[in-house]
Please model this.
Amino acid sequence: WKRHLHRFRDRPASHITAFAILHEITAIVPMFGVYYALDFYQPKTVFPEQVLQEGNRVVNKLRSYAGMDALDTKSPVLAHLALSYAVVKAAAPLRIAASIALTPWTAKHLIVPFVKQFSKLKR
Model:
């Protein structure tokens, strides 16, 4: 890690930006992946029926305010979203470790060249 430390000192903004982007990507991609896996395999729900119905009622109220169609009261969408969110949050230590490990490469090969090209365009 010492070989990357001098790069961080020289360009802290690019490393912080790279980490932030990686951290968000490692949250969004798995969230969709887990949700669609749950939707595809339709596992038995881990939530009590009353909780799902009450959650769907609240979500339907919010959806109606937004002008969207209501969900079926038996819809597993809420359970899949909640479980996807929980899985992504539980994997936070792995996501952070991956983001830290990939930050130097991302900063060097993606962020710095992008900033250089953007700077040339501004001139």
